[in-house]
Design goal:
By secondary structure, this protein is α/β, with parallel strands linked by helices. It is built from 5 helices and 5 strands; from the N terminus they run E-E-H-E-H-E-H-H-E-H. Helix 1 packs parallel to helix 2. It is globular and about 30 Å long.
Length: about 140
């Protein structure tokens, strides 16, 4: 009878990515929850493309419930920004309240990569869809 030693490697438990879409006035709000990485980022990319395909050119990405973001996720955010600009639209991000000041995970990743300044960031949905509201400073 052979006994096997327990596996010493640990697998990171995957938090599935969920995207919920709502419309508020001219804005399509995509609430993203979970981990934004190489495996899940195509879901966000497709959600943004789907909004544009039906003529929704003002998009808010609510990242307040994103637990992890890698460079693939950042790439999707930059691609979304480029797409919105090319069609004359607007892209806004929501990071947790005080995220720009204290740094949510996504905010820290964007800042570390030097791309945080490319995005208009708002603290919550109400500010993000308000055309009079000012974005948080980078």
């Amino acid at each position: 009878m052979t006994t096997h030693a327990p596996r010493l490697t640990q697998e990171r438990s995957r938090t599935p990515l969920k995207v919920a879409e709502t419309v508020q006035g001219d804005w399509t709000v995509l609430r993203i929850r979970g981990e934004l990485d190489l495996v899940t980022s195509p879901v966000v990319r497709q959600s943004v493309h789907d909004a544009v395909a039906v003529g929704r050119h003002d998009v808010v990405l609510d990242l307040s419930e994103v637990l992890f973001c890698d460079s693939s996720g950042v790439g999707v955010l930059i691609a979304a920004r480029r797409l919105m600009r090319s069609c004359g639209g607007r892209l806004r991000l929501i990071l947790p309240a005080r995220g720009a000041e204290e740094g949510s995970h996504v905010n820290r990743v964007l800042a570390a990569l030097g791309v945080r300044r490319l995005f208009d960031v708002y603290p919550d949905r109400y500010a993000a869809v308000d055309d009079e509201a000012r974005p948080l400073s980078a």
